[in-house]
Amino acid sequence: MIAMLERLVFGRRPLVIAAFVGLTLFMGYSAKDLKVDAGFTKMVPLEHPYMKTFVQYRDEFGGANRVLVALMAKQGDIFTPAFFDTLKQATDEVFFLPGVDRTKVSSLFTPNVRFTEVVEDGIAGGNVVPSDFRNTPEGLEQVRKNVLKSNYMGRLVSNDFTGAIISAELLEVDPNTGEKLDYTAVARQLEEKVRGRFQSEQVDVHIIGFAKAIGDITEGAHRVILFFAVAFVVTALLVYLYAQSLKLAVVPLVCSLMAVVWQLGLLPLLGYGIDPMGILVPFLVFAIGVSHGVQMVAANGSEVFYGAGCMEAAKASFRRLLVPGGIALASDTIGFVTIRLIEIRMIQELAVTASLGVAAIILTNLVLLPVLLSYLDCGEAYKARLHSRSQRVHGKWTRLARITRRRNAGMVIAVALALLAVGLWKGTDVKIGDLHRGVPELRAESRYNIDTEVISERFAIGVDILSVITESRPDGCVDYEVMTAIDRFEWHMGNVEGVQSVVGLPGIARVLNAGWNEGSLEWRVLPRNQDVLTQSVTYVPTSTGLLNADCSVMPVLIFTRDHKAETIARVVAEVKRFQGEYGLEAVRFRLASSNVGVMAATNEAVEAAQFPMLLYVFGAVILLCLVTFRSLGATLCIVLPLALVSLLAYALMSVLQIGLKVSTLPVVALGVGVGVDYGIYIFSRLQSELDAGKSLEAAYRHTLDITGNGVLFTGITLAFGVATWIFSPLKFQADMGILLTFMFLVNMLGAVLLLPALASWLLPSKGRGVP
After folding, report:
1. DSSP secondary structure letters along 198-258
2. Residue 169's closest CA among 296, 274, 64?
3. For residue 493, which of 569, 434, 559, 537 has the smallest C-alpha distance?
4. For the chain, what is the radius of gyration of the CA atoms?
5. How do residues 580-616 score in pLDDT, each as one tens digit?
6. How many CB atoms lie within 10 A of CB 453?
7. What is the pTM of this model?
8. Which of 154, 339, 504, 750 could lock onto 641 through a cystine, CB 3.0 to 4.6 A?
9. Higher pLDDT, 634 or 229
10. Kind and range of the H or E element at 719?
11. d(CA 117, CA 132)
C-alpha cells in the first residue's frame, strides 16, 4: 500500500502540487467569510439539569445574561442635579441599546423600581423617582427618602449613596434584525455610548456583564496576532538553524501555513465561525505542523547523510514517516475529538476546529512536503553541514544512549517514581472551577475585573447570584405551609459561609406584614391566616422576579461573596442537603439560574467529563500503539511517560492555583494527543534498528543520531509556539500557554529519557522489540 501511494504521489508531482495550490487558493477565498462567533448559550452545558431549569424559566424570570452599568460619584453622593441628569441619560441610552430586553431594565428612573411605606391608612407606595420628579434639592431629598423606604438599597443604590446601577437583560436574538445578537457590537456600544459619553471628572462608569466580558476577551484575542507574528519569526529562525538550509526551512513553514489556511477555509464551509475562546487554535495547529515538518526534514537529512540523492531521500522519508506520522497525527486528532465529551458547544466547536487543522496537516506535511523536498538541490555543501553537525552531537548521543543500561535505567525510573509521588500528592488538590474573583478569562488588573471589584465593594448584592427556583402548587404564595418552607430555606442559606445575602418572597412578606401592623417588629412573621398572608404579598409585583403570575413558582435569590470553586460547591451542596432533609411534597427547590447557577452547571459538567475524556484519549493512544507496534512492552514504553506528565500537569495546576475549567480541561487531552508524537517517532526508529539485530544501546544511539535532533527541536518549537501565549492579556490563554509549554517540554524529556529506560526493562533482553 505504501509503495502504491509512493508511486501515485511521486509519479505525478506537478499535478500533486497544482492540486494543493488550487485547494489552498479556494480555502483562502472561503476564509474571508469567517466571522467571530460568540454566544451565551455556546458557553453553557445546556443538557445539564441546572441548565434545563435555567432555560425553562429564563423568559419568565430572566437569565444570567445581563449587563450592569454602575455610575459612581467621585465626590459627595448621588443626590445632585448633575448626577441625576447623567443617570437619566445613561438609563435611556442603555434602554435603547440593540438586544436589550426593555421589559427587564431596572434603574431608579424605570417604573418597575418602587417603594412601599406604612401610613395611617395602611400601606402606600409608588415609583422611587416619582412621575412628577423635578431635579431640585427638594425633589432629590424626596428620592432619597423613597430609596430608604424601598428594598433597593445595596441593589440599585450603593450602601453609602455614592453610586447607582442600571441593570439590563439581553436577548439572544436582536429583535430589530432577527439575527443572533452580536455581543462584541453590544460591548463596543457600551464603551462608546455609555462609558465614553458619561465618564467625566464628576462620574466614574463601571460596566460588567457577559456581553462586556465577551467584548473584552475579543479585544484581547485580536492582540494575540502580535504573539503569532513573534512566534512565527522565531520559529522560522529555529527551523533555519536546524535545517541548515534556507530552502529546507521555508518548505515546512509553507506547508504548515497551508494547513492553517485549509482549517480556516473549511470552517465557514461547514457553517462554523471562530469563537474568541478558540482564537489560538490556528496558532497551535501551525506549531504542530512545523513540528511534524521538522521530522520529515530530519528524515530527509538522514537519507542524504547516508548518500541518497534528493529524490531518493524524499521517497525514503515518505515511506518511513507515513505510518508513524499518520499514527501520531491520528492521536493528535483523537486528543482533540475527545474534547467533544464536554457538552458545551463552544468546546465542541473548538474540537472541530482543531481536528480540521490536524487533518489538513496529514495531507500537507506527509504528502506535499516530501514532494517539495524532492525538488530541492542536496548539494555537497548541505551534506558537509550535516556531517559537521553529526560529529558535534555524536558524542552526546553516545553518552545519552547509556541510559538503556539496566543500572542507569533503574535510576531514571526511580526519579520517575518520585515524580509520580509528587504528582499524586499535589495533583489530587486540583479544584474544579475558578479559584479567583472576577472573570477568570481576564487578568486581575483588567478593566472588567476592576469594575467587578468596585461594584462588589460598594453594593450589598454583589454580582454573583444563584437563583434557586422554588416550585409549588398554584397560589402557593398564600399557603402558610409552602411559604414557611421557603422562609426556612432563606434562613438556612443566609447562614451558609460565602453567602452575602438572600432575597425571597417570604422575607418580603414578613416585612410587609409588619408594615400593616404599624411597623412593629413583633409582627415581622408569616401570618397563618390566608387572608392576612394574601394582604402581605399583594403589593409584590411579578416584575420583582420573586414570583410568577399564579404564585406556583417563587425564585430565591442567593447573593454569594464570589464565584470561587469552593464557594459554589458549598452553596450548591447546602441547597441539595436542605431539599433532601427538609423538602416537602408541595415544595421543590430546583437548581439553578443566574450566573452562579450557570457556573455550577459548568463545573459539574467539567468534573463529569475529565476522567472519561482521559480514559478515551489514553485508550485510543494505547490501541493505536498496539496496532502499530504489536507489542505490549512497546505500548507501555510510549504511554507510561505520557501518563506521568499528565499527572504532573495536574500538580502544576494545583501549585499555580489554576482551576480545572472549560479553558484548561482540554489542555490535558491536547497535551497527551500531541505529546505522544515524540514517543511514536522515537520508538518507530528504535524498532527498525532492533529489527536489524542491534543491541538496545546501539539501536538507541543510532535512533538519536537520526531523530534525536528532530525530537529535541520539535519539543522546543512546540513549547515556544505556545509559550508566547503566557504574555497574552487574556488570563485563560496565559494559563493554557503555561500548561501546554510544560506538557510539550516534559513529554519530550519523557520520550528521550524515560522511554529508553523503560525499554531496557520491558523489552526482551536480547534487544528485539517486536517478533
Report:
1. H--SSEEEEEEEHHHHHHHHHHHHHHHHHHHHHHHHHHHHHHHHHHSSHHHHHHHHHHHHH
2. 64
3. 559
4. 32
5. 888 778 888 988 777 788 888 888 888 888 888 888 8
6. 16
7. 0.76
8. 750
9. 634
10. helix 709-723
11. 19
